[in-house]
Design goal:
The protein contains ten helices and 13 strands. By secondary structure, it is of the alpha/beta class. It folds into two domains: about 150 residues, Nucleotidyltransferase, domain 5; about 160 residues, 2-Layer Sandwich (Nucleotidyltransferase, domain 5), CATH 3.30.420. The longest helix has 25 residues. This is ROK family protein.
């Protein structure tokens, strides 16, 4: 089979869809040749499919490409079954329980891979980013919600059901709930007291409201703390403690060589200085804390990681054509 000239990566979020077209050559370094964004029709499945098809066909027209010269990867929120494309997706309601892969493969007539957006972020940082060559990396997104992906030697670990790295839905330690008098907050997943309800950007706002503030954003709280506001300082201290305890569980479960922070809260500089000390008390004595680093690619990491999934989609198709096993739960990008 002829290898694709271009890799298309799509980051499908709750409010926007971003497509990037990257050079596919082994020495191209995933250089971006084209980028386009459109709003997400999150509640209309047919409209969403049309938006995705239009984005891809628009890129084809702009770049002089076609189905024979491109491969496509898409990162979406939630748990994604790598084989069927069925997934749970609270941020894009019209996708919940639906199978997107068969529709897009038919409409676009090219290799398509679907993955979790946080896993795409981790994959991107492991290929040319701050986690490149680090052995194992846990790529963590702290934004509206909280999720992660785990990569070993450049390979994405998805697990049996595609749920590896769904760290945001681990429960918060009851001792920490009691320490700060926190309520059992409901989560969109249907459970209560999930980590993302407290340590995400949304969770930070909730902490501010819980301690008597107005539920300010991370940026506004940073300004308030710099101006000497004691409440903002208390909120950040509590958030750091909660996040440190949560990351300690990651260290114990995965023992990664590096942790990379993504999402809006990754821009909070105090996290990189404060998290090692916040993690350490929750670990087994003597166990070290891995480096905690900011991302190399910022907001572009999700789409870039999806382009790496596009490379995987082509490799899978080529392997199938050669009568070789195409997928396992431990996948090569």
């Amino acid at each position: 089979m002829r290898a694709p000239d271009l890799l298309y990566g799509i980051d499908l979020g709750g409010t926007k869809i971003e497509l990037v077209a990257c050079e596919a050559g082994p020495h191209a370094g995933l250089a971006v040749r084209y980028r386009q964004r459109v709003p997400t029709p999150a509640n209309d499945h047919d409209a969403l499919v049309e938006a995705l098809v239009d984005l891809v066909r628009g890129a084809d027209a702009e770049l002089g490409a076609n189905a024979a010269t491109t491969s496509l990867g898409i990162g979406v929120p939630g748990i994604v079954d790598a084989a069927s494309g069925a997934h749970l997706c609270a941020n894009v309601p019209c996708l919940t329980g639906r199978e997107l892969l068969p529709v897009l493969r038919t409409r676009l007539a090219r290799p398509v891979a679907l993955g979790n957006d946080c896993q795409c972020f981790a994959l991107s940082e492991a290929h040319g980013g701050v986690a490149d060559g680090k052995g194992s990396a846990f790529g963590l997104i702290l934004g509206t919600g909280a999720g992660a992906g785990y990569v070993i030697d450049g390979r994405l670990v998805r697990g049996l059901h595609g749920a590896a790295g769904e760290w945001g839905h681990w429960p918060l330690d009851p001792a920490l709930l009691r320490r700060y008098g926190l309520p059992l907050l409901p989560c969109p997943c249907g459970r209560a007291a999930c980590l993302e309800s407290y340590v995400s950007g949304t969770g930070l706002r909730r902490l501010h409201a819980h301690f008597g503030g107005g539920g300010d954003s991370a940026e506004r709280l940073t300004e308030r703390r710099a101006a000497g506001d004691p409440l903002a300082g208390r909120v950040f201290d509590a958030h750091l403690d909660l996040l440190g305890a949560a990351l300690a569980h990651i260290v114990l479960a995965y023992d990664p060589h590096v942790i990379v922070l993504g999402g809006g809260l990754s821009r909070l500089e105090h996290l990189y200085a404060g998290l090692p000390g916040a993690i350490r008390p929750h670990l087994i004595p003597g166990l070290g804390v891995p480096p905690i680093l900011p991302p190399a690619f910022g907001d572009a990491g999700g789409a870039r990681g999806a382009a790496l999934l596009a490379r995987q989609a082509f490799s899978s198709l080529a392997a199938t054509a050669a009568h070789q096993p195409a997928f396992s739960s431990f996948q090569e990008p």
